[in-house]
Amino acid sequence: MSKSTPEELPTPQEILKLCMMSSHESVKYHEKLIEKWNDPQDIAQRAAVVILNVHELYGKMAFVVFKMLQNNCKHPKKMRDLCADGTVYCMDCNADLSEDEIFSTKTPTLMKQKVRNRRKIVKKYAKQKMTQAKIAQKLNVSLSTIEKDIAILKS
Predict the structure, then answer these.
(1) Is the dihedral of CA 139, 140, 143, 145 positive or negative?
(2) Does the global pTM surpass 0.70?
(3) Which ranges of 42-131 would DSSP assign to H, the alpha helix?
């Protein structure tokens, strides 16, 4: 048995799509069998009805799980921030956002400038011996963001 690398493995969404598709095909197949046999007393037709119902249920369950896994976040601009390495991410869903996906080519530069300005203000407040919590409150950002900024300023 060969080992699979993570790149070769399907995502959960792909697996669920395959489950929904195979369930749909099975339901269609069993519906045709039931129509063809058309004898409610036949044991094979009753088995086909049971299989049809089970596969319909599996398809519905796979669809529900698929919908739960889908990310419905719209990544609003006010919830975007930069990591220390310059990667833009959404603070709502914690997804990394690529430039092609969300931003025009000018926006990341603006985001970097915004972070630079925030760090200048953090540095100024830190020199005034203001606590990290008060700085976060004044700048309307999370405490973890201020902690990261201070750590970067110290390095």
Answers:
(1) negative
(2) no
(3) 43-69, 107-127
